Amino acid sequence: EVQLQASGGGLVQAGGSLRLSCAGAGFTVDDYAIGWFRQTPGKEREGVSCISSSEGSTDYADSVKGRFTISSDNAKNMVYLQMNSLKPEDTAVYYCAAGSFLICSRKKRSPTWYDYWGQGTEVTVSS
Predict the structure, then answer these.
(1) What is residue 55's predicted lDDT score, i.e. its pLDDT?
(2) Of 29, 34, 46, 105, whose CB is crowded by the most CB atoms within 10 A?
(3) Partner residues linked to 117 by β-bridges
């Protein structure tokens, strides 16, 4: 059974940093594209970043480019999202998901490309 577990959320002041972790079970993260999404109440789930470690492919939403970095540790079957220079508008519940495609791109920021989802981890950035 494919499972993803997101963790690492919390409360941080604007300008601070957090690292989110996504642990994979029942599959190998190297065999999937792993995406990070975020959602706030009343809004659609937004694609934040994606990594396909087998292809060396990454993608970032314009709103986080230069501040967030996605990475993977295949030995640990983990994917990370390092979030720096956090802003109050980054406040959301963050989810990781696995998709059966090889190349990350703007088009792949849609949640419809992803097959498996973990539960969310909440990030709150105070001003």
Answers:
(1) 87
(2) 34
(3) 97
